[in-house]
Amino acid sequence: MRALTLIADRRLELADAPAPAAPAAGDVQIRIRAVALNHLDLWGYRGMAFAKRKMPVVVGVEAAGEIAAVGPGTSAFEPGAPVVMYGALTCGVCKPCRAGRDNLCESVGGIMGFHVDGFARDLVNLPERLVIPVPRGVVLRDAACAPIAFATVQHMLFDNARLEPGESVLVHAGGSGIGTAAITMAKAIGCTVITTVGDDAKADKARKLGADHVINYRTDRFEGVVRKLTAKKGVDVVFEHVGAETFNGSLLCLKRGGRLVTCGSTSGPSTTLNLMQLFQQQYRIIGSFGASMRNIRESLAKMADGLLPVIDTEVPLTEFERGLARLESRQVFGKIVVDF
Ligand SMILES: [Zn+2]
Hints:
alpha/beta; 28% helix; globular
C-alpha cells in the first residue's frame, strides 16, 4: 500500500509500505479515501521546537474512509461503511474519556499524523471505539473535514464559548478552514457574524458565505471597525486562532462579560495581557484544543443537514506538498482535501 511519510523537516516521501495485518479483536481496518489538511500538518511538516515526536511518521491528521475489514468481536460496522476517525489515540478508560471529554484524556497516546503514524496511507487499523459512522448523503470529501476542522469549531463555539442564537461573534481569518466553518455554524443559529480577511476577493467570498460584516485587516484596524459596528459595545464572542498579532485587539472587541475562545496562535505564541482590563471587563478567556467524539458526530449531523465545509482545493496524494504550500501561503478560502 502507499504511505506518505515525513522523513525530515520539510521532506515527505511517498513509498510502498507493508499493509497492516488483519484487524485484531475490537479493531477495524479502514481504507482511506480523503485526507483534509490543517495547520497541524504544517506545524509537523516545518518542525516544531517543543513538540516531542519521532520521524519517520506517516502524515495526515484528519481523514475519511470506508471500512475494509472488521476484527473479531466488532459489531458496529459492515465492510464498505463510510467512516471518519478520531485523530488521537485516547485511552478510553480514564475519567475524562469515560465522561466523553476525549480531548482531555489523561494518557493520550499521541496525535495521529503528528506524534504517531497518521492517515495518509491506503489502510489503517484502529480500535472500533475511535471510528464514527458518516451519515447518509455526506460525501467522504466533506466528511474528511469533520474530525478536526468542524469538530474543533463546534467545540469552541458551543461547548466552550456557549454561543447563543442572536449573539454577535467576531471570527478571525474568515477564509481559513476553521474560519469558514465558524461563519457558517454561527450564521446557522442566527448570530451576527463579523469576520476578518486579508484581501478583497476573500471578503466577497466571506459575504457570500453569510458574514454580515467583513473587515480587510490589511487596510483597516479590525478593533476600531468592530467598536464602530457594535456602537462601542463590542461583541459577545471572539473566535481567536491568529494569536500574538490579534489577541489584544480581540479583547478590545469584547463586550463587558464577553468570551474569547482560542485554539491557535499562527502569528506567534506569546502576548502580554492587561490584567485590570481582564477583571474589570469580566472577560472570559477559554483555551480550546481538539474536540470530543460527540463533537465529531454533531459536525457530521450538521453536514447531513446541509451545512457543508467550504472546499478550496482538491489535490491528489502525489501533490500533498502542493496542498501544504497553498495552506502556508494563506492563499486559501476553506479546506484543502487530498484525494486517494
Ligand atoms: Zn483517556
